[in-house]
Amino acid sequence: MSEDPQILLVTGAGSGLGRECALFHAARNYRVFGAVHIESEGVSLLAEAKARNVPMELVFMDVTQPEQVYAGVRSIVEKTGRIDALVYFAGLGLRGCIEDLTLQDVQKVFDVNFFGVITLAKGVLPYMRTAGKGRMVITSSVAGRMGSIGIGGYCSSKFAVEGLCECLHQEVAPFGIHVSLLEPGLIQTPHFTINRNRAQGATNPSSPYYNIFLQHEKIVDDVLAKRTFSTEDVARVVYGILQSKTPRLRYMVGFGAKLFVGLRRYIPGEIFQRIYWGVIRRMVTKPREQAKEFSGTELDAGH
Predict the structure, then answer these.
(1) pTM of the predicted model, to two decimals?
(2) What span, in angstroms and rounded, lies between the C-alpha atoms of 32 and 245?
(3) Which residue of 119, 137, 203, 211 has the fewest C-beta atoms within 10 A of its own C-beta?
């Protein structure tokens, strides 16, 4: 084990995958700076770090505020002299069919999922270039590889991240910096509970898409209930990326995600789309059981 720990910045460390990733690496000789944007997340992260008996340092930053991000990155460099790796887990979901979304809904998601990545990259890359090395792991999603009903706003932000990171991967390689995309499938985290972020229009019974969306949400919940991989499994994949001498551009997590993307790769596009949409259409328009309608309590809780 190295006596000189790697300096790792993890965004979105306040909950879910980011939190587990920060704690997991803190237990494995990384000096971890967990980025959170509200005090309560920081308190919770430090409490869990104490419970696991691992060190953790906080940095407060809202990824939608560039000056705050740059100040946070500078504070880390002032303390440590460098940043060796960035793992970007900050993210925002958005559920609802396109016509039920407002432009503000979509803009907010892009501000976090896409423009936040650019902001963090611009913040850490000068220091990594100076050092002649660095690692960046950017969280995308299987939704960045294939679209699906009811998540068009979210999918489009992740498709954009995929294209961005393909370009960034090529641009920074000559400076000794590796960029990898992390593409998890569906996994039970606060992203699907208190942070589910259903668009207001999508939960309106007068929407022409309401019943379809309702059924699709039930499908998602049924899939989540059967998932066997955990946040620790995802953190372990990130650890493998950071430890690899020659990391790949893409890492997909979850059997279902690998299966569907693999099928799409080998089945001609139009044929795959016809089969995939045919299955989904039958499931959302001719359900075997009625999905529960959204309640006021769910909406107030942000589920």
Answers:
(1) 0.87
(2) 20
(3) 211
Residue tagged 């995929």 (tokens): 162
Catalytic residue among 30, 127, 154, 210: 154
Rounded CA gap, 197 and 151, in Å?
11
At 25-53, the pLDDT tens digits run 999 999 999 999 999 999 999 999 999 99
- 210 carries an active-site annotation: no
Query: How far apart are the C-alpha atoms of 96 and 105, rounded to whole Å?
Result: 10
HSE (side-chain half, CA atoms, 13 Å) at 223: 14
Architecture (CATH level 2) of domain 6-209+229-256: 3-Layer(aba) Sandwich (3.40)
Q: Taking 60 as the threshold, does the pLDDT of residue 192 lie above it? A: no
Cβ-based neighbour number of residue 27 at 10 Å: 14
Domain ranges of the chain: 6-209+229-256
| Paired tokens of 158 | 């992740």
CA-based torsion, 212, 218, 224, 227: positive or negative: negative
